[in-house]
Input
Amino acid sequence: MNTKAPIRNRIPETPEGVLRRLEWHLLRRIDGILQGDFRSLFKGSGLDFAGLREYQPPDDIRHIDWNVTARMDEPFVRQFMEDREVTAWFFVDLSPSMAFGAVDRRKESVVVDLVGLLARLLTRNGNRVGAILYDNEMQFTIPPRSGRLQTLRIIDAIQEQQAAPVGSMTDLSKLLQSGYKRIRRRSLIFLVSDFICLPGWERVADQLNRKHDLVAVRLWDPRETELPDVGVVLIQDSETGMQLRVDTSDRGFRQRFHEAASRREEALALALKRIGVDELSLSTEEDIVPSILRFAFVRSRARRRGQ
Output
């Protein structure tokens, strides 16, 4: 078993090259659809208390004022004036499984594009963004700032991060707990991961979501759900390093593999729904722009219905 930390192959593009590509090819497309209406994509978290009213489904239970509820014997929710500025954080999982995918489209390369695009969308409107990069062993924090330079800092940090040693499963609860303790002001938090990890993170995610606005961004590769028929192959668990020789020409084995992957997806979706966290699911073979817009519009409609 290899216990050394392999150095990630640096993406050929420089941070400036990545950002220029994103601005030219992706940001322009988003602007063409939104016509500059950034606020319809991600709204700021309300910070200024405006008053109380009786709870009405499907109000966000995180806004229930439990002290008033106890006195009045009826549930009451706090109302807020929306803050025009957003403080956003990217919690980025850079564990070994994030290096999986096609040679030219691994999950970690999608992370660079996705985080870079969202960070630039936010910073160009005067909002501040920060990041916590997690690789199973250590966390690298970039304090929130605004501006184009901050987006370049985050892109560069993701590209330079080393892979964690193979041999241990990812523990996302450590990353979430660190963010819960570190971030004081209510923020928009993107948890970017493939969620191939140890159980138990859901409890900390629930705590974090009660304090902030948490969005789960799940990155996945089609080969993690469907095995091609290529005969006998040696497969390796990218997290633990365990190897197994399998016969992919066995239709029954491929079906069981697919069913196991489907159960993992269903369990994740159920866990996120239970704690009230929105999920943006993104395949390594998908176009980022329509995926982001589709998610944002669905989220916006759901929030309007809840008002």
Q: What stands out?
A: The radius of gyration is 21 Å.
